[in-house]
Each structure stands twice: as C-alpha cells, then as structure tokens.
Amino acid sequence: MEPVTIIVALTGLLGLYMAWNIGANDVANSMGCAVGSRSISIKWAVIAAGICEFAGAVLVGAHVTDTVRKGIVDPQAVAALPGLPEGGAAALFLLGMAAALLAAAVWLNLATWMGMPVSTTHSIVGAVAGFGVVAAGWSAVHWGKMGQIVASWFLSPIAGGILGFVIFRIISRLILGREKPVRAAIRVTPYIVFSMTVVVTLAIVYKGLRHLIAERAEWLTGNHAFLLAGAVGLLAGLVSRILIRRALRHKSGLPLGEQLDVVERVFAPLVVVGSCTVAFSHGANDVANAIGPLAAILDICSTCSIKMQVYVPPWVLALGGCGIVVGLATYGYRVMDTVGQKITQITPSRGVAACIAATTTVLVCTRMKLPVSTTHTLVGAILGIGLARGLAAVNRRVTRNIFGSWLITVPAAGVLAVVFFLVGKIFLFDIVREAIS
Amino acid sequence: MSLIKELFGKSPFGPLVEHTKKVHECVKLVRPLMEALAREDREEIHRLQDEVSKLEYEADRIKHEIREQLPRRYFLPVDREELEDFLHCQDQIADSAEDFAVILIIRETKIHPLLKEDFFGFVDQVVHVSNMLAEAAVELQNLAETAFGGAEAKSVLERIGGLGEEEWKADRMQRRLCQKIYHLEDELDPTTILFYDKMIEALSQIANAAENTGDLLRSMILKG
Question: Is A257:A30 a contact under the CB 8 Å cutoff?
Fold first, then answer.
C-alpha cells in the first residue's frame, strides 16, 4: 500500500472519530428544544437530526472548514520557512494538521473522562493555533482571525440571548398575551414560519452553493439569492397559514387557559422544525471541527503543495456528515434522552424562540466563516428568554461556564498539539515528505 | 455537554397553584363550621376541625417543598422575596381558618339568636374575600405561560383590584357585629363575649391575610 494512502487513511479515521464524537455528544443539544417540550419522540428526533446535520454539513459546511484548514494558520508562512527541503513545507503542514486533529481528539476524551463539558470547536481551534505557533513562529497564525474567532465565542451567546429575548417578547406580546391567543396565533405564526425559512434558505444559497454546483450557480448572485429565499419563505408561510387555520378552527371560544394549551400544541411542529434548523446550523458549523484538518491534509496529498485554492470537496463534507450521523445513532440518542428529561420546562413557544435565535446566530457566524459553539449559543438564547420572564427557574451559574470554558480548552489542546507535532516532526518528517512528493 | 441539563430548575408555579387550592379548601370549611355551631352540632364541629387541621398541615408541606426547591442560584421571572412573602401570607389564610376551627372546639359556645344573621353575613363576606384572592392566585401558571404580561395579567390584576374594597366591607361588618354584641352585653356572660371576640378576630384575619396576599400577587406580576 502506498504511504500516501496510509496517511490519508489514518487521518481520515481520526477525522471520522472526531465527527463521531460530535454526533454522540453535541447533537443532543440541537434537538433539545423539541425533545424537552415533548413535541417529538427520541426515535424521530434522531432521524431528523441525522438528516439535518448531514444536510447542514454538506450544504453550508465549507465555509468554516475553510477557516480551520487555512484561515487560522497561514500556509504561506510555513512555505516561507528558510532551509526546508523539497516538499518540506507541505510535510510540516500535514504533520501539523494531523497533530492538531489527534490533540483535539485526545483532549475531548480526557475532558469527558474528567467530567468537564468540552467544546469541539474550542479544542480544534486551540490545537491548530498551537501547532502554527510552533511550526512557523508567532506570525504564522492569523491573529486577526483568531481575535475574531475568540470574540465570536463571546458574542454568539450574547447575540443568541438578545435574539431569544426579542423573539420571545414578540411571541408573548403578539400571541400569548392576547385576549384570544388562538386568533392571534392564526394571524402571526405564518410570519414566524416565513422568517425561519428565509434565514435557512439564505444561509444556503447566498453565494454559497458554488462548491456543489459551481458552473450552474452563476445566476445565484446576491439579489437572486434574496428573491429565492423570499419566495421559498412565502411558500412556507402560506402553507403554514392553511395548516394552522385548519388546526385552530372553532377554538377561539375556549377559556384562556385552554386556548394557551391549544396554541402550544400548534407550536409543537414548529419547534420540531426549529430544532431541525438548529441541527442544520450545527452541522454546518461543527463539521469543520472534524473535517477541517482532514481537508487540508487531503489537499496537500493530492497537490503536493499548500496553496489550497480549491473549494472544499463535497465528499469530504459528506464524510464528516456521515461520522456525525453514526455518532448520533450509536450513542447520541442516549444523551438526547437524558437531556430531554431535564429540560421539560421548555414549552414549544419558548423552544421556537430559542431555536430561531440560535439558528440565526450560528448560521450568520458560519457564513462569516467563524467557528462557534452551538451549545453556548443555545444556552445564551435560553437565558435571554428567561430574562424576558419566559422561564420559571434558570440556573445563573451556567453563564460562568459559557464565558470561561475556552480558557482551559484552548491552551490544553494547543499544548497537546505542540507535543504531537514536535514528536511527528522528529520521527516522521522525512517519511511524510517522501510520501507526498 | 452537561450545560443544557444544568440550565433549568423546577418551576414553583405549579406547586404555588397547589398551595392556593389547599388553602381554599381550608376556607371552604368555615361556613359549614359556623352552621354546625348555630345548630349546636358538637360532633360535626369536631369532624370539621379535624379536616381543617389536616388540610392546613398539607398546605404547610407544600410551602416547605416550594421553599426547598428554590435555591439562590436560580433566576425567576418574579421577585424571589415577593414570592416567598406571598407564600407566607397565603399560608396565614389557612392558619387563621384553622384557628377559627380550634376556637370552636375548645368551648361549647352558643350563638345568641339576635346575632346569628350578622355572624353569618360576616362569615360570608370573609369567605368571599378569600375566594376572590383564590380565583386570582390559581391563574399563576397561566401567568407564567404568558410571561406575566398581556391580557391574562390585566384580567388577574382587575380581579385583585376589587379585593381592597371587599376587605373594607368585611371590616365594616366586623365593627357592626361587635357593636351589636356589646349592645347585648347584659344578656351575655363575659366568657361568651370573649369567645365571640376570638372568633371574630380569627375570621377577620382570614380576610386581612387574603388582602395582603393579593397585594403581593400584584407586586409579583408587575415587577419581576
């Protein structure tokens, strides 16, 4: 077997392992709102999450993957290192990416074993930055980008919180707080459906599908994308209006308490769709944590250089998506069950607000090529809803965890990556160099 | 990732509605007690007093459960102190109802025929005040659902708004009843007057506690 194949196979397995982890641990949070509010069974939640995570990874996953593979560590800085033999820069980069992947995977297991909550996003970003500094010095890392990324780790839960607050206020003022909530629901809910659909569609099509349908996507320029998203949203809004009207017919005469119950039941399918969009955005943002380094390695192996001009190939994203789905199906459903039992305080109306807030924030960050933690964003959204008096008892201490958790993970994963990279450089440098040339 | 699991605490609003219903059941026995006293049915008075005490104990248990499940680290949609004061005050309604029942069993007191009508009128008004409060307080879960705003909050606030006036009417009835008692003081022995006074005091405490609870409920809704 050719050495290159071995390299690809080994790193591929590592990438798949990371993806498996993401599916096993993180996806449960994406579907949390739907499962917690009892709007969907675990079985169907797993199926829906699998489909949506995969779709998100393949359709929108390329942006953040690009950041991980060449946006944090500058390949040119590595190429410009003095005294490197033929193909040495490529070998170094490859070793670094492999080390980063290994470090992130090891840290993930270590932290889980120690019982700490850990973010795959923080791990991979810390690991990649770590190897970059050691491989080619401080200036090899795009510190501007790193600054943006770390800022997004603070801003995404805050944005999620603000959006969650605002959206829930809208729902409670315009629907729940009315004298006849049923009538208000018939009027207002289609607009909610419209907004959700526009956000997700826009995230997919706005200058976004080039990696899939490169030539045929020429007409999908800025304005056309908006029109398409608007049209799809309109369609979804109209369909939802018909369905909601039918479900809520004759119910506006009920006493207030029962009307609220009925409205919550109508929101149940909505929160399922909302959770699916969260799973979609999670797949789009997090597949990079597993596949980013792998994409870099594959590119190096096939081109023997570290230019990385091509788009991330869709099959790599699909591979990551598969890993996530397998992780979800083999272990994630158990986590989903546990999480679902603990968050029954989320009623569908709250769940919808949290999902829209989280999805919008994560998708915007994804299109800005920023890797963020979907879980933290969701927690931020839920806290925002709590501030809008929407939840009966919210644990304040969780805020501490959100803002401080990366302080441990980033250095830890970075140090591990440095260690693995140096070991690899000493023992494997020449082997790799020969293999890829 | 255990973050989402740790995020939520148990809602106190369901148990609060339970507490309201329990207290209401205590107060529902006040009129039957008065009727049994008027009929001089000692057995029935004892039976009712037993029931009231049991219900009051159950209300106490719910109160303690609610307190236990609200550690400081949880952020609530209402002011925590006001919630605790509300609970304490509503509990006093049940306490006063129990006091009334106990007063009736520790001495065989007879109601003077000329005072019967006024006593029953007073009891009815006091129970009416407490019912008004109960009808508002059971809406706490719906209030939580509508985030303490909108049409539901408005309607509950309107219901509480009438409490002050009804309690004032109860006060007036209490004064008239006491005046009548002292008009008849030559026909009554001092111990009986003493017991009438105790009974009236316990009844008026029910109405007072209900009014104060209503005030706290209003604060919970408006602030938070």
Answer: no
